[in-house]
Every structure is written in C-alpha cells, then in structure tokens.
Design brief:
homodimer; 199 residues; alpha/beta; four-stranded antiparallel sheet; 7 helices; elongated; DNA-binding
DNA sequence: CTTTATCTTCATAATTTTTTCAAAATTTGT
DNA sequence: ACAAATTTTGAAAAAATTATGAAGATAAAG
C-alpha cells in the first residue's frame, strides 16, 4: 500500500468546513454535531451529496435515538462526548481501515517492517524469522515507537487472556529478538520496561 | 493537547447551577449533595439528561449505600466531607484526565518538558536521560513550579509507601539532576527544601 | 511416538541505580 | 566575622534490575 499523509478537518465553522472538505484531498472528517451556524447533521448531508468521505460524528447528546439518526445520515461512526483523544484516534483508525485507507496489520519503523498478515519481518528487504511471541512483542513496540511498555504489558501481547508468566520471560524474548535483528532497535528503560527507539 | 481554560460551577443555588451548567461550556461540576432547593442528586439527574459533563459529588453522608447511589446516578467520583481543598483538586484532576480533558502525564515548565508516557525529558528539543527517581523528583517539582517541597515530600515521590530513607539521598538526586540538565532549574530553599524556579 | 522448535524458568554475571557517608563549602543569624 | 546549621559534592557501599547461557517444560511437526 502506498504511503500517504492523512488529512483531516477539525474546524469551528460549518461553512468553512464544508468548503475545505469538498475542495481538498481529505481522508476523514471528525464532525461535531453542535457547530455554530449549520448543525453537524446538515454539514454531513451536504458533504455526502458530493463526496463519500469517512465521517466520525462527535456529539454531546447521548440517547439511542441520536445514535440511530446519526448513523442513518451516513456517518461512519459516532461517539458521545466527553471522549478521550485516544478513543477518537482508535475510532478514526477503525474507520480508515474499513475504508481501506490504512492497513493496521502493517507497521514500519525506520528500516524495520512488520506485517501481521503474512507474519513477516523485514529489515531493509532482508527477511528475518521471528517466532510468534517474538513477533507479537516487536509488533507492539513498533506500533508505538518511543513509548515505554512494561513487561506486564508485553506479556499481554503474547498471552491471550491473563495467563501468568514471569517477567523474566520477556527479558529472554527481548534477548532473542535482539540477537536476530543485528542492530539493537530495542532500548531498555531501567526499572520500567522496554521501548523501540534508536537514540 | 490544546491548552485550555478549565471552567467549573460552584454555586449555592440548584436552579442557577443547572442553568449555568447547561448554557455554558463547562468542563467539570463539583456538586454538593445538600443544596438548598433541589438536592444534588436531582441536579445531577437533570444535568445528565442533557449533557454528559464530568461530575464530582461532594457530600456529608458517609455510608456505603450513599456512595453506591451517587455513582449509580452518574457522578464520576464521590468524596465525603470534611475534605481538604487539595484532595478535591486531586479528584477533579483525575476526573478530567479520565474525560480526556487534561493530560496529567505531561508537564512543561519554560524550556523544560517532561512526559511520563514516553519517560522523556527534553530541554529545548534536546533529550535528557534521567533515572526513575530523578524523573519522579523533577516531575513533582515541575508540576508545581515555585512551590517549595520538603525533602520528605520528595521522598514520597520516589518511594511507594513509607519507606524510610535519608534526607541526604534527596540532596544527591538533586545534585545528579542538576548535572544532567546543564542549566540550574532547581533552586534550594535553605532550611526548607527545593523548588523549581529561576528567580 | 519421536523429533524439533518454541516457550518458560532458573541461576549467575554484569550493569545500573539508589543510598549512605564524610569532608568541604555555603548560608544564616548574632 | 564567628559559630551553628545546612547544603554540596565525590566516592564508595548497598540494593535493585537486567543480560545471558543453559536446561526443563510444552507444543508442534513429522
């Protein structure tokens, strides 16, 4: 899949938002239902008449009736405020995946490339064979580079439910991953865990 | 996360409070259960019918039954009076964090930037490596710049429960932090402790 | 069933961090 | 300026954490 920049609209003026949406290459719209001027519903309708851009509807109202209305109008998903920024990100990712704009099974970090679909690890076109546990750990790290993961979090990535295994096991997996990727992508953060970072 | 002013309601009249909550951009409500006029529970119910604003319930009743009631009605947290102002602040911060309105993991002071999520310290885009104890101390100082912290308070920041370690240990940590950040952000207040301040 | 690969644990070595200590330097109040 | 109290600092001991090789346990494959 071609690499691409994701563009989005986040605007406090309805007319301008519509104009931007229709006249630019936009991948996703996060739409607040309560805009000054036109309502979010009207914006959605106007945009949809012309272009079929994925839309995440954001609203303060929380009744089921509202949910149904919003989805019927054609928004691709619907969240009720207050909502954490992280949740919004998750929803947008899901929408973009559905629309085929991004591939969540693939992660690239520097010259490292992981693909869950084919269970493949490449480093500059050179294939690396990792075991399942090793792959899952590296994938989790690569999904959020620079973020520190505790051993417990990494255990969650390799055991489905709350199976109980020792923290030391993660150390061993990390050791083996490091040996297979010659360069040391994984940095240990003393007392906390591991992260994927070069510096 | 965008910087923003936090707005709150603290009012002695239930009807006015409801009116204010519904017709203004409010981020959080601190609600006393015993209001003249309508009860706090009723206010909460009325507000929640329309808007989903985070609510901290404040009450004199202390039975478990009350706690359950309050939470069921939809308040996000619940404290029993008497309560210190500081505790209220802590609770509100926790609520706002949960609601995604503030990010407690990040602190910025002048050209100093701490991020707990990435366990990262930057000073004007230059990364600094701190140990866990050093990070916790600097984080606590940076969270409340200009506030003087005793060595005992700083010990609390690096030891989970009341582990007993010497005051001199803090001196050493401060020394090491100062060495790593070249500029001296930390000012010692003779006879009291340390604070983060330039003047 | 046997063999092989993978996962996990364990013990020890290596590393890093935390804490203490004591002498030197600084600050404060008289 | 002096004495008392407090802080700074470098060095070293103590504690905690991580790396590693080897070996046992488990699962997968032939």
């Amino acid at each position: 899949m071609k690499k691409r920049v994701l563009r989005y609209i986040l605007h406090d003026n309805a007319e301008k938002a519509i104009d931007l949406a229709l006249n630019n290459e936009i991948d996703c719209i996060i739409l607040d239902r309560m805009l000054p001027g036109l309502s979010g519903d009207e914006v959605l309708k106007k945009v949809r008449e012309i272009k079929n851009i994925p839309v995440l509807m954001l609203t303060a109202k929380g009744s089921d009736q509202d949910k149904i209305e919003g989805l019927l109008l054609g928004s691709d998903d619907y969240v009720v405020k207050p909502v954490t920024p992280y949740e919004v990100i998750l929803r947008v990712r899901a929408i973009l995946k559905r629309a085929g704009l991004i591939n969540l099974d693939k992660v690239i970090y520097k010259d490292l490339e992981l693909d869950r679909k084919y269970f493949l690890v490449k480093i500059k076109d050179e294939k690396i064979d990792l075991t399942k546990a090793e792959f899952e750990i590296l994938f989790k790290l690569a999904q959020n580079p620079k973020v520190v993961f505790t051993r417990e979090q990494l255990i969650d990535a390799i055991t489905p439910d709350g199976t109980i295994i020792s923290d030391r096991t993660i150390d061993t997996h990390i050791k083996n991953i490091r040996k297979k990727l010659k360069k040391d992508y994984i940095k240990t953060v003393f007392g906390l865990g591991y992260k994927l970072d070069s510096d």
